[in-house]
Amino acid sequence: MAPNVSPTASPGLLLPPKNRHGLRTTAKVLAFLALLAVFIIWPSYLHHQNLMVALGGPGYLPDTDPYPNKPYVIPAARDNNLPDTTPFADKPYVRPAAHDKKRRPLNILILYPDDWRHDSIGDEHPERVRTPFLSRLAREGVRFTHNCVTTSICWISRATLFTGQYASRHGATRLYCPTFQKKENWEATWPYLLQRAGYWVGHVGKWQFWETPNSLFNHTKFFEGKHWHGKEHAADMARDEAVMFLRKRPKEKPFALTVAFYPPKPVGSSYEPGEQWSPDAVHKKMYKNFTYEEPYNVTEAQTKLPWFLQRKGAGIGRYRERFGSKLQYQESLRNYHALITHVDEACEAIVDELKKEDIYDDTMIIFTTDNGMMLSRHGLAGKWHPFEEAIRVPLIVRDPRMAAATTGNLDDSFTLNIDLAATVLGAAGLDPHPAIQGRDIAELYLSEGSHIDPPWRNEFFYEFPNEDMVSATALVQKDWKYTFWPMHGLEQLFHLAEDPYELEDLIKIKRGATKYDGPHNERLAEMRARHDELKDEAKGETEAPQCIKPPK
């Protein structure tokens, strides 16, 4: 029997009413599944990919095509006009009122590589690494030997760089949730405040949050996730984009530029010796004959870790991949330091452009990094935990306002990454936003012996709030460190003056124990109380911004 349909019906609808109902039901199910994939499965996949990239795991694997040595030329393909994307783009530059001659507005250049430990500077350890440019820059400025991050992981440090806030205050603890980009939060950051004051502000290289914040800056160019992009190395791309920014910026405006190098961060997941770091042939050859000695018995040190760090986790897993054998250890460190030398040369090329444009002495240069690296210390890889190797990072500041007697100094003050926002604004002649928790580091080198009021900090609070891994907090002083692992209720106490590698926990509370009773009772009680006090100060009275919807 022929189906009962209109002679004008579409051939696609030649179905009995019962089957047409089934088709509509099937279509609804398929539509639902499509929405599920778009809003849940795909973001979850990307979150996994990007988290693995952030941890140095599999995600975006490097293109390891050899990169031939070639003269420094900006590629024509990227020689485009800078976008005019911010609400302040057409605003004429009005020189901010400076409080005194030492606060005259300066250009600002921030050189910001990834995963670079505090002691990977050549003048301190020439047997380990070559950084001739950074060594010269330090002689023209001040190098801060006890500069630390308040959270040792890439994306949280980047949020802190722009906000001058602890993670517990800015709330950007998830890779997919840049809460500081929300309008009311962004208006307290130094990129926004500088643009409002007439600065031309750019960011090139790594962004980390996998958003497209082009409207937040006057110029952006993002590339991350690997060392090689085709046949071009990420260090060279960052160099070229920075030089292009300097050449094409509006010359009538002051500028601020962040150059976020992806190297020397490891990429991928591999047991092949040194493969997670991919230098070019020229820089790899420089380290062919370098040999690296372990500072202590790493295998024994691993047995002294808290039990939960010994058993599993990214730290011990990455250690086995990167440093598990002698050959892995040597090749990994050779390639890691080869990337550092490459970035050192790229930084020099950018600064040379300042000199060519005759603005070198009108520009504050800040070199620092987002976090340190364990590099096999304690039998761990990665960062995250409150060990000195993970939380201490380089900081070199070259400031034209410095007195000649100040240049070349080493300063052991506790400077923090929360201080960078106030320092940048100070260089522009602007006061810090009330939301900024750090201080202007220039106080330390422009005081010229006068009293700093209030006195500079002699301790600080460290936090790692990400419970996807192992959260931790710490009170860090020059001679002592108190560490708390909240997921396990474990406390540790280290006497850094006598035990700089943090190998001997003075409390030694074993698994299953609930209380320490011994010779360090008084110090433990004091440091625990101070830790809790600084923790409350870091968080503040208001709740940190939270993600209110699934990440895009």
Note down, in words, how this protein is organized.
A hairpin with a 2-residue loop joins strand 5 and strand 6 (232-233). The chain has an eight-stranded mixed beta sheet, with helices on both faces. A four-stranded antiparallel beta sheet has the order 11-12-13-14, with helices on one face. Strands 5-6 form a two-stranded antiparallel ribbon. The protein has 16 helices and 14 strands. Helix 7 (234-248) runs parallel beside helix 12. By secondary structure, it is α/β, with parallel strands linked by helices. 33% of the residues lie in helices and 13% in strands. The chain is globular.
How do the helices and strands line up, and which of them pair or pack?
Elements: H1 17-54, E1 107-111, H2 132-140, E2 142-148, H3 154-163, H4 167-170, H5 183-186, H6 190-196, E3 200-205, E4 219-222, E5 228-229, E6 232-233, H7 234-248, E7 255-260, H8 281-286, H9 298-303, H10 307-311, H11 314-323, H12 326-356, E8 363-368, H13 388-391, E9 395-398, E10 409-416, H14 420-427, H15 442-446, E11 459-464, E12 472-477, E13 480-485, E14 490-495, H16 521-539
Parallel strand pairs: 1-7, 1-8, 2-10, 3-4, 3-7
Antiparallel strand pairs: 2-9, 5-6, 8-9, 11-12, 12-13, 13-14
